[in-house]
Fold AraC-type DNA-binding protein.
Amino acid sequence: MTSAVLQADAVDVLPAGFWVHQGAPPTMRLPHRHDDVEVNVVLCGQLDYIFGGSRLTVRAGQIAVFWAATPHRLLAARDEVPDPTRGCWLHIPLTAVLRWGLPEYEIGRLLQMSALIAPVDCLPYDPERLFAAWADELADDRDDGTAMPAPLEAQALLRRACRHRATATAPEATSSDGRPHGNVIAGVTAMAQYIVEHFRDQVSIDDVAAAAHLNRTYAATIFSRSLGTTPGRYLARCRVAEAQRLLITTDKTMLDIAREAGFSSQSSFYEQFTRHCDVSPGGYRRRHGRS
């Protein structure tokens, strides 16, 4: 597992890996995405994100957990917030999280393209002290990260946040006795990961199902039950999120953005973008300061 402790202004160029930060919010000049599970603990003040095109506010005393494959940008602190924002940040590679063997319903919640919000008091310890210990251990160049306690402690934090989430989630795929099907989330994880990695290509439901070695009907059923959306809508959301990032961070033409984000045509790009964002691509670009 890669370990890193970087300065706050370096967050835009972080590679995927285990990362810890404490104190004032890191500067995020542009939206970015990375294949980690991200944990934010707000100690005072509040955090305001643009998360997949929607506003996300995390207030003092709350924990936010999300899969950072969704493009997101931390906004500057608002003047009306009286206390300077201070918190703790943690990145955990998704590959590491999947190796933990978490219960299927918890993995399902993490793979939804939304943030889970939980109260800080769901943790039985002071998060500041825990994050400070992680930062010290990760800063020790003599340690390659393989023997550190941080991954186990991070797993416990993540599970408590998932169990005490305040946001609503979709129903999980269950058997007739109400328990999750064995290997359901393993299949859903493989399908979601395939979509995130290949959304720029022409992807069919057969391609998605094949990533999990399932037939298309069963694949679509368990995907929808676990994540609360169809594979097609999940694919569209990935493409729209990438288009949002390109609209804000580049001067590319609409045709180029449509192609690079994976849309089959410019008309499909306009239709799906407007449906998801309630604004046209051009209007979205103007709203975020680019003409």
The longest strand covers residues 36-44.
